[in-house]
Write a structure and sequence with these properties.
Helix content: 25-40%
CATH class of one domain: Mainly Beta
Radius of gyration: 31 Å
Strand order of the largest sheet: 3-8-9-10-4-5-6-7
Low-confidence stretches: 1-30, 161-179, 216-232, 264-364
Number of strands: 29
Structural class: alpha+beta
CATH architecture of one domain: Beta Barrel
C-alpha cells in the first residue's frame, strides 16, 4: 500500500499548538490543502478511560501497483484499527488487515478528507466521503491513538503483543529447514561453547598437576598420605574424563556434518568461493581433531603447550567462518545451491583477469582502495527540523546540509548500475534467447546491489549542465552522463561497449512520510545487444528508506520489474522485488520468471538483490551472479563498494582531458571527500546560488537550456547525440567554451 500522488504544491508551515491536551496536534495555517501530522501522547502516562468504539465504511487505496480506491468496513477499538469487506466478516473473525494506531505516524489533510497511517512497514491511505464523518474519524483516531500510546508507556512489555499481521499465514520461506551453512554455523557455535568448558577443565587439570609436582619437589612439605594421593588422583581422573567427554561431544556433531557436506562438495565441479570457504572450515575441524588426539596422548608436562595450540585452532575456526568468501549467516537458501561463477570473473582487483571481458588484454590501471577521509558524523543535524514542513512533498527541491551527503553525485550513482557489465558481455555471447534474457534480468537486479549499505547518506544533486564520464578499459565500456533538466530534475546517461549499449533518462520523486522516505523513479532503461539485434526495456522499482528520524536506517526496494525485447516478442521476463514482511526475517528477496510468448515459464530465478541471483530451483540451482565483497571498514567510508570508491578518483593525467563541467571537478563534493565539512557547505551554497542566477538569466531572456551531449528522441526520452568522445579527442574540451558551474 505504498505510493501516493503529489499531495500539495504549497509549502506546509507549522506553528505552536493553540491548546494543550494529550491528544493535541500540530496546528497549521488556515490553508487546509496541506498535511498535518497528528501529535501523540504528551507528559507522563496515567490512568485513562477507554475510548468509545468507532466503526463504519471508509475508502482505502488499493495495494501497489493497482490504482484507485475500494470500500472497506473499519472497526476502531482500543487503539487497534481492523478492516474487512463487510462488518459481518469482522464479526466472524475474517480480517483483511489490522493497524496499530498507537505505533503509527498519523497525518491528515482536511481539504481532501484524507487520513494516512504510516506503520513503517506500510503506509495506509484512507479517505472519508463527508466532512462530518472526516472530523468524527479524526477525533476518534486521535483519542484511540493516545490511549494506545498510554498503554504502551505504562506496560512496555506488552508493546509487541499485538501484531498487525498476526492473522496472516507464514510464507514457505518461514517453514524451510535450516540450510547446510546455517547448520555449520550452529554447530560451530555449540562447539565453541563446549570448547570454553574444555578450557576451564584444562586449566583446572594443569593447576592440579602443578600442585602435585610442587608438593613432590618440596622437601619441607608434609608427607602426602595415601588418602591425599587418592583424592588428588581421583580429582585428576574425573577432570580428564569430563574434559574428554565434552571435547568428544563438541566435535562429533561437527565431524558428522563435515563428512556429509564433504561428500556433497566433491560431487560438484568447479569449486567456487563458497565451496572453498566450506573446505577451509573442514580443514579447521581436521586440525582440531588431530589436536584432541594430541592432548589425550601427550604427557602432563606438555599440557600448557597443548592449550596454546588448542586455542590457536579455535581462533582459526572463527576467522574462517567469517571469511569474505562465504555467504552471510542470514541467507536462507544460497548456501545450498551450486555455483558456476568463477570469482575471478567478478573481481575488481587490479591484477585479476576478467572472463568475457571486452578488453581483457588491456593492462589495468591501479586504482585507489579507500577514500581520503572517513564519513563525518551527522548526529548534530536535526532531520526533523528540515523535514517536518515537507510531509508529502518532493524532497528534490529541499536544501539539505552537506553532512547528509556522500561524496558522489547522482550521475555517478547511475554509473554504478553498470558495475556488473560482464553480465551483458555474457548475454551478447549467449545464443539461447531465454538464457540471454536471464542474464539481462540479472544485470537489471545487480544495479541495486550497491545501495544496501548506503541508506545513511544521499548523493549530491547535479546542477544543470553538469557531466560525468567513466572510461573503463578494464571493463570494456565508456560511460557518460549529463544533467539535462533541473525542473523537473532529469539525469541522462549512455554507456557503450562492443558487446552492448546501455542508456536511460531517470527522474525521481522523493517523498517523506513521517518514518520513511519513498523514492519513486520514472523512466525506462534500455539495453541493446549487437550480436542478436535485441533491444531490451525495463522499468525501475520503488525504493524506501526506513527509520529516517531515529534508529538504524535501512533501504528496501519493492515492486515488479517488467523486461521485454521490443524487437522480438519470443520471450519476456517479470522480476518481483519482494517487500519485507514484518513476521519474517527474510528481506531483499527477488523472484522472477522468463516466459515464452504463450506465457509458459521457461526459466525461473531467485535470490537477494544485494547478494546474488540463482537460476533454477534449490538445492540444484546455479549461481548467475554474486555481488563483490565489500571493502574493509566500508561502514566508516559511506558504505561505498570498491567500484564506488573509484568513481570520484581524479588522476592528474585525466584532469586535462575532462570538460570543466565534470563532477570530479566540483569543489563541494571534493571537499567533503577530503573531510572539510565547513568548506564543502560553503561551496555547496555558492554553487546552488550560481545555478539560481543562471536560471534567472535564461528566464529573463526567454531562453531554454540546451544539453550539450544529449538530445530528445521521438518518444520524448533523452539519448546521446554521440559527440562526447569525438569532441574529447578533437578539438579537446580545453579548447571549447563551457558555462561556469562552480
Amino acid at each position: 500500500t505504498v505510493g501516493r500522488k503529489q499531495s500539495s504544491r504549497k509549502k506546509m508551515t507549522s506553528s505552536s499548538p493553540t491548546h494543550s491536551d494529550s491528544s493535541g496536534s500540530s496546528k497549521h495555517d488556515s490553508n487546509q490543502d496541506s498535511w498535518e501530522i497528528v501529535e501523540g501522547l504528551k507528559g507522563f502516562p496515567a490512568s485513562m478511560q477507554e475510548p468509545v468504539r468507532q466503526e463504519g465504511f471508509l475508502l482505502k487505496r488499493r495495494k501497489w501497483p493497482m490504482k484507485g480506491w475500494h470500500k472497506r468496513y473499519f472497526v476502531l477499538e482500543k487503539g487497534i484499527l481492523k478492516y474487512s469487506k463487510r462488518g459481518s466478516d469482522l464479526k466472524k473473525g475474517k480480517l483483511h488487515g489490522c493497524i496499530d494506531v498507537g505505533l503509527s505516524v498519523m497525518s491528515v489533510k482536511k481539504k481532501a478528507m484524507c487520513i494516512d497511517l504510516d506503520t513503517e512497514d506500510n503506509i495506509y491511505h484512507l479517505k472519508v466521503k463527508s466532512p462530518e464523518l472526516f472530523d468524527e474519524w479524526v477525533l476518534k483516531l486521535r483519542h484511540h491513538r493516545v490511549f494506545r500510546q498510554n498503554e504502551i508507556a505504562m506496560y512496555p512489555h506488552e508493546r509487541h503483543l499485538f501484531h498487525p499481521h498476526a492473522s496472516s499465514s507464514p510464507t514457505l520461506n518461514d517453514l524451510m529447514l535450516p540450510t547446510s551453512h546455517q547448520i555449520i554455523h550452529l554447530s560451530l557455535s555449540l562447539c565453541l561453547s563446549d570448547l570454553e568448558e574444555c578450557e576451564s577443565y584444562l586449566l583446572e587439570l594443569n593447576l592440579l598437576l602443578k600442585s602435585m609436582e610442587v608438593l613432590h619437589r618440596t622437601y619441607s612439605a608434609p608427607a602426602i598420605t595415601a588418602l591425599q594421593v587418592y583424592v588428588y588422583t581421583h580429582t585428576i581422573s574425573n577432570t580428564q574424563e569430563a574434559f574428554h567427554t565434552t571435547l568428544k561431544s563438541a566435535f562429533s556433531s561437527l565431524s558428522a556434518e563435515r563428512d556429509r557436506l564433504k561428500h556433497t562438495i566433491h560431487m560438484q565441479a568447479p569449486q567456487p568461493a563458497q565451496v572453498i570457504g566450506l573446505k577451509t572450515t573442514y580443514s579447521s575441524v581436521n586440525s582440531s581433531r588431530s589436536l584432541v588426539h594430541q592432548v589425550s596422548n601427550e604427557s602432563k608436562a606438555s599440557i600448557p603447550e597443548s592449550i596454546s595450540e588448542f586455542f590457536d585452532a579455535q581462533e582459526y575456526l572463527l576467522s574462517s567462518s567469517s571469511s569474505e568468501n562465504e555467504v552471510s549467516d542470514d541467507d536462507s537458501y544460497i548456501s545450498d545451491v551450486s555455483d558456476s561463477v568463477s570469482m575471478d570473473t567478478y573481481s575488481n582487483e587490479g591484477g585479476s583477469e576478467r572472463h568475457n571481458s571486452v578488453s581483457s588484454v588491456v593492462p589495468l590501471t591501479r586504482r585507489r582502495s579507500t577514500l581520503p577521509s572517513p564519513s563525518p558524523s551527522s548526529s548534530g543535524v536535526s532531520l526533523w527540523n528540515i523535514l517536518k514542513n515537507n510531509i508529502g512533498k518532493d524532497l528534490s527541491k529541499v536544501a539539505m546540509p552537506v553532512q547528509l551527503n556522500e561524496p558522489l553525485n547522482t550521475l555517478q550513482r547511475l554509473c554504478e548500475e553498470v558495475e556488473y557489465s560482464e553480465l551483458l558481455d555474457t548475454a551478447n555471447q549467449t545464443h539461447d534467447p531465454y538464457q540471454r534474457m536471464v542474464y539481462v534480468a540479472t544485470f537489471a537486479v545487480s544495479a541495486y546491489a550497491s545501495s544496501y549499505h548506503r541508506a545513511g547518506s544521499k548523493p549530491f544533486n547535479p546542477v544543470l549542465g553538469e557531466t560525468y564520464e567513466c572510461d573503463r578499459a578494464d571493463k570494456g565500456f565508456r560511460f557518460i552522463a549529463e544533467q539535462v533538466s533541473h525542473h523537473p530534475p532529469v539525469s541522462a546517461c549512455h554507456c557503450d561497449s562492443k558487446n552492448f549499449t546501455f542508456w536511460q533518462d531517470v527522474r525521481w520523486k522523493n517523498k517523506f512520510w513521517g518514518k520513511s522516505m519513498e523514492i519513486v523513479p520514472m523512466g525506462t532503461t534500455h539495453v541493446t545487444l549487437p550480436t542478436f539485434g535485441d533491444h531490451y526495456e525495463w522499468n525501475k522499482v520503488t525504493s524506501c528508506i526506513h527509520n529516517i528520524l531515529s534508529g538504524q536506517r535501512w533501504i528496501e526496494h519493492y515492486g515488479e520489474m517488467a523486461i521485454k525485447n521490443v524487437n522480438n516478442d519470443a520471450c519476456q521476463c517479470k522480476v518481483t522485488f519482494v517487500k519485507a514482511k514484518s513476521w519474517s526475517s527474510t528481506v531483499n528477496e527477488i523472484e522472477g520468471v522468463v516466459t515464452d510468448r504463450d506465457g509458459k515459464v521457461i526459466h525461473s530465478i531467485f535470490g537477494k538483490w544485494h547478494e546474488g541471483v540463482y537460476q533454477g530451483d534449490p538445492p540444484s540451482a546455479t549461481c548467475i551472479w554474486r555481488a563483490n565483497p565489500m571493502p574493509v571498514e566500508q561502514e566508516q567510508y559511506y558504505g561505498f563498494t570498491q567500484f564506488a570508491v573509484e568513481l570520484n578518483e581524479l588522476d592528474p593525467s585525466l584532469k586535462t582531458l575532462l570538460p570543466p563541467t565534470d563532477t570530479r571537478l566540483r569543489p563541494d563534493q571534493r571537499l567533503l571527500e577530503d573531510g572539510n565539512i565547513e568548506g564543502a557547505e560553503e561551496q555547496k551554497q555558492r554553487i546552488e546560488q550560481l545555478q539560481r542566477e543562471r536560471r534567472k538569466v535564461l528566464q529573463d531572456n526567454n531562453m531554454t537550456h540546451q544539453p550539450r551531449f544529449f538530445k530528445k528522441s521521438k518518444d520524448d526520452t533523452w539519448v546521446s547525440n554521440n559527440t562526447y568522445w569525438e569532441q574529447r579527442r578533437d578539438p579537446g574540451f580545453s579548447k571549447m567554451d563551457f558555462p561556469v558551474l562552480w
